[in-house]
Specification:
This protein is an alpha/beta fold. The protein has helices spanning 11-23, 34-43, 60-69, 85-93, 106-137, 147-160, 176-185, 207-212, 229-232, 248-260, 286-291, 297-303, 320-331, 341-349, 355-369, 382-386, 406-420, 425-431, 436-446, and strands spanning 3-7, 27-31, 48-52, 76-80, 98-101, 166-169, 194-198, 213-214, 226-227, 237-241, 262-263, 272-273, 277-282, 306-308, 338-339, 375-376, 392-393, 396-397.
Length: 448
């Protein structure tokens, strides 16, 4: 169902068009001239406008020009009494998407509407793309000082110059998608679309349709042909986030598309060439998944051409303060808010289990708490200690006055280590300063 504005100074014409369009399931609004129509278009989004050319106060041509001047991305169809080639050419030259001739023929009206709505969808997609690119263009810069991060950035810069598949792994919040954006904007595909798909958020029954699109009538509810993400991202970069959550069936179809560089829409027979750079992201250990039969080994080798692993924030503490200051600069619209030495000490001592994402959230909270102070202090950041993670200072562990449950604390620490390491026991053991064998014993003792 589309939202359509009908504009004509003759009430009977407006009424007739409204009946035809509403009978086809569209939502119709009416305006008696260009001035009224322009105010309505500015205040409420329409999928298209159908307007007479000759009207008092403001005619259809002037209305079209006003809409274009405001960059409202709303296609306009003219109503004309002349159906000559010359008039059609003139109509299109003026910028109309299509035209309807008088007297009206219902089939021709609906055909013009269908063609124009396709254009409307394209304009909406382009508008969304521009907004995303504008948003991303300022966000793909990487902030770091550490040698570890410098090496990873160097790898990302090198692979950006090629068209190879990239697999970005790491804990949640380490900036995996930021690296994907960095690679896209540093590549020859930077002028193309950057399309991200969260594989974990797609229903298993809709994965194929989401990635490859579908033909009209391919399944119940498929009322029109729809592009998949591979087609939509053509010429650009496609990000498959949480690729480890795809079903084995979806993995097989993804592998075929990547190897053959061709795809078919669901319900279709036509083979469509794929021209897209694929970057996969996951916080899961795909090697373990392969061994357990949860991820196809051939697909793993196909997407793991160039692995990149952003290190967690705790492994590069030198980056904590520069990142914190970067977030403060971008979040605060008022006077500069500085970090006191006490605040800096707390930031460095905190283990940041949520990595850069948690640091960004903490800075946002700190900005709100320090709005009237002009500085973020250790007191401002006291909420970090309340989470139960920041319990170390120069004197060691600080026992709360009310005491603790050692058993509960041990279980919580083991659980956190498992979550942070994405179920990798070797990494979890290192987080607690244990060997893998000792960690497995501890895990059996605490997790039943």
């Amino acid at each position: 169902m589309a939202h359509i504005l009908v504009v004509d100074d003759e009430e009977k014409i407006r009424h007739l068009l409204s009946i035809i369009l509403e009978r086809s399931g569209h939502n119709v609004a009416q305006a008696c001239d260009g001035i009224e129509a322009f105010e309505m278009v500015k205040s409420s989004p329409f999928d298209m406008v159908i307007t007479d050319i000759k009207m008092p106060r403001m005619d259809g041509t002037e209305l079209l020009n006003k809409i274009k001047e405001q960059d409202l991305s709303c296609p306009v169809v003219f109503i004309t009494a002349f159906a000559t080639v010359e008039s059609a050419v003139e109509t299109m030259r003026q910028g109309a998407a299509d035209y309807i001739t008088k007297p009206f023929d219902e089939d021709h009206i609906l055909l013009a509407v269908e063609r124009t709505l396709k254009l409307s969808r394209i304009l909406a997609e382009n508008r969304e793309l521009r907004q995303n690119i504008e948003k991303l263009a300022g966000d793909h810069n990487l902030v770091y000082q550490s040698e570890q991060m410098g090496k990873v950035v160097e790898l990302a810069s090198k692979v950006a110059k090629s068209d190879s598949a990239v697999l970005i792994t790491g804990e949640s919040g380490t900036g995996k998608e930021l690296f994907a954006r960095f690679i896209h904007f540093e590549s020859a595909r930077s002028k193309g679309r950057f399309v991200a798909v969260n594989c974990a958020a797609i229903s298993p029954h809709l994965v194929e349709s989401e990635l490859f699109g579908h033909e009209k009538g391919a399944f119940t509810g498929a009322d029109r042909k729809t592009q998949g993400k591979f087609e939509f991202a053509s010429g650009g970069t496609l990000i498959l986030d949480e690729v480890g959550d795809l079903t084995l069936e979806a993995q097989a179809k993804l592998l075929r598309a990547l190897e053959e560089k061709k795809m078919r829409r669901v319900g279709g027979n036509e083979e469509i060439d794929i021209n897209v750079r694929v970057i996969c992201i996951t916080n899961r250990n795909l090697t373990d998944l392969v061994q357990k039969g949860g991820f196809r080994e051939d697909l793993f080798f196909r997407i793991n051409v160039f692995p990149i692993h952003p290190p967690p924030l705790r492994e590069r503490p030198v980056d904590i303060v520069p990142l914190a200051r970067y977030f403060l600069e971008n979040m605060n619209d008022g006077p500069e808010i500085r970090l006191t030495q006490g605040a800096i000490r707390m930031l460095k001592e905190y283990t940041w289990p949520g990595n850069v994402r948690e640091l960004a959230n903490a800075m946002e909270r700190a900005v709100i708490l320090s709005a009237d102070q002009g500085a973020i202090t250790s007191k401002t950041l006291s909420f970090l200690k309340k989470t139960g993670y920041a319990t170390l200072d120069k004197n060691g562990f600080q026992l709360p006055p009310g005491g603790i449950s050692l058993e509960a604390l041990q279980k919580d620490i083991v659980r956190q280590a498992i979550e942070i390491s994405a179920n990798n026991q070797t990494t979890a053991a290192k987080l607690l300063g244990l060997t893998r064998a000792k960690f497995r014993v501890l895990m059996k003792q605490t997790i039943t």
